[in-house]
Automatic annotation (TrEMBL):
<protein>
    <submittedName>
        <fullName>BA75_03633T0</fullName>
    </submittedName>
</protein>
<dbReference type="GO" id="GO:0016020">
    <property type="term" value="C:membrane"/>
</dbReference>
<keyword id="KW-0812">Transmembrane</keyword>
<feature type="region of interest" description="Disordered">
    <location>
        <begin position="160"/>
        <end position="182"/>
    </location>
</feature>
<dbReference type="InterPro" id="IPR023395">
    <property type="entry name" value="MCP_dom_sf"/>
</dbReference>
<feature type="transmembrane region" description="Helical">
    <location>
        <begin position="241"/>
        <end position="262"/>
    </location>
</feature>
<keyword id="KW-0472">Membrane</keyword>
<feature type="compositionally biased region" description="Low complexity">
    <location>
        <begin position="160"/>
        <end position="173"/>
    </location>
</feature>
<feature type="transmembrane region" description="Helical">
    <location>
        <begin position="282"/>
        <end position="304"/>
    </location>
</feature>
<keyword id="KW-1133">Transmembrane helix</keyword>
Amino acid sequence: MKELSTAEIRPYYDPDNFQSEYPYVFKHNYGVVNQELGKPISMTLPTTIKHNNQKPYNMSRNNLGISAVPVNKTRSTKIQEDMFDYNSVKEILTSVLNNFIKKYLRNLISQPFEVARLLLQVGVFTKHDVSNKEHKLVVNSDLQSSDDEDIEYLIPADTSQSSLDSSNNLQGSISVKPKSRSHRRFSSIETAPPTIEVVSVDEEGSKYKLNPFSLNTLDVISSLFTQDGVKGMFRALNTTFIYNTLFATIEAWISGFISPLLSIPDPYFVDVIHSSDPSKALVLILAASVITAVILQPIELINVRFMVTPTNRSETNRSFRSQISQYSPRDFLCPWSLLLPTINHSLASNGLKRYIPYLLFTQFNMDIYNSPVMYPLITLVTNSVELFIRLPVETLLRRAQLNYLLNNPNCNKTLRLQHNELSVPFGGYYGYFSTLYYVYTGSKPSLDKVSVTELNNINKGLESIFRGWKVGLLHVLSNWRFQMLNNYTNVSEEQF
């Protein structure tokens, strides 16, 4: 069979002569277009017109060439109808309500532990022993005088029963009330023995002071329940919820506003390791957290005030709306004395947690998908280390905040506290870098000898710097376990 040469083979159509052979048709990016009709040939077929049920495209010529303009408005109309669909609106409202309930219940469960930890971080606690206190001895008998006058004798509080007749070192008081003058003629055998009642001298001042049996978190919560009832365990619940909601909202807004300017995805919704520029995303999420903490510091001061004051005192203003309405414009700014503690606390709370995944991914190419076993273990260790870094910084912040509420003359009058309004005596704040030393020793800086009150303080030692670490570690373990289950489900679905 004779083979044809290349010159003898004619293609189906010659691209160079296509226009001359078919004068009414030319090629375009949209396909083969008929110049006379101004539309693609494929769109003029009867089957296509019948399927679209109307003219699908209008081809109009402009300076750049031919462009297709859709004339079908059914799609846009359907989108508008979906936006105002009752089912869609109902689904959105249901989702918002579910998130609201979940966050509120989460705050409700954690609030007693938050209040107990804050009181342990700022307070001075003494041994639960009545022998260390000065008392007033009141001796009551059935004898009363006819003129109802009390005969009082002053004795020391620690005087024994055998030395009650002594009049030296008078510190206490004995009230003997004879019943009547005629009863004095009776013998002492007929007289009932006196009863001794031990009452603290500073009973009115210590009425609102917590006195737990130990410094365990559960004992402090039990003491809160004994003092204030159920409301004492959930102090500042609504204020805490408002603060957490505002914090998440403002942080997300700042992150979403700045991320387009940096040409990166929003790191609040996209993990740092999945960002197009992880270094910019890391800096942005940390900066957003710090800025939000500084902005909301005035609201956090109200939250701290409600936590350290009892709920059963009528003279204490515990209305968030009343407190915030009496703020002046200057009060909405973060105080200078709280700026450094606030920034350090925000960085300690988020820095290590955000930086370690970024470091593992950029340096070792490790994430939950590449290292499903090693990566969660490193995350658990990281979160535990972050907890023990955050607690001392949080102690400094809480003491600085309470010191501002007690001693700073620039504090708002409605926000300012007195020492007798606190549930626990204030442990003091002596500067940012030296306070931890006095928390550790349980004393205060003084040229003279440390007072007896400070020596009796049992809230000292290394554990006083890390108050709440047990509950915090349980929280870390529970969150880690939940994330493990969630990541395992996601990885299984992706492999499937």
